[in-house]
Specification:
By secondary structure, this protein is α+β, with helices and mostly antiparallel strands. The chain has a single domain, classed as Winged helix-like DNA-binding domain superfamily/Winged helix DNA-binding domain (Arc Repressor Mutant, subunit A, Orthogonal Bundle), CATH 1.10.10.10. It contains five helices and three strands. It has a three-stranded antiparallel β-sheet with strand order 1-3-2. A hairpin with a 2-residue loop joins strand 2 and strand 3. Helix 1 runs antiparallel to helix 3.
């Protein structure tokens, strides 16, 4: 398993902030990441997403999503994996992710 030092910090469910979640989801690239995770049903490495941004910009988007509590990141070997924290989001904000994933994501 990955060393604890490599796993980035994640907020606990009790620390989820609705405003921060909404601000994370306002960006179409971040909504696309969430939608792709939801549709896949499996965890995806950072390089496995279809997003039209550079690697450094993608890193920023993943950090915003993780800090808001929308995704969990962990390492498998050298790959940083991403999982959608759907159950935890549904617990705190019922229906939010359902509403989000039903809407098509417009590419910018």
């Amino acid at each position: 398993m990955a060393a604890m030092g490599r796993t980035p910090p994640h907020p606990e469910v009790s620390q989820f902030d609705f405003q921060q979640v909404l601000e994370a989801l306002v960006d179409p690239v971040r909504r696309s990441i969430v939608a792709q995770l939801d549709a896949s049903g499996v965890d995806i490495p950072c390089g496995g997403f279809d997003i039209p941004v550079s690697k450094s910009t993608a890193t920023h988007h993943f950090n915003v999503l993780r800090e808001a509590g929308l995704i969990r990141q962990y390492y498998v070997g050298t790959s940083r994996m991403n999982s959608l924290r759907r159950a935890e989001m549904d617990e705190m904000f019922p229906g939010l992710l359902d509403a989000l994933t039903r809407q098509p994501v417009r590419k910018t």
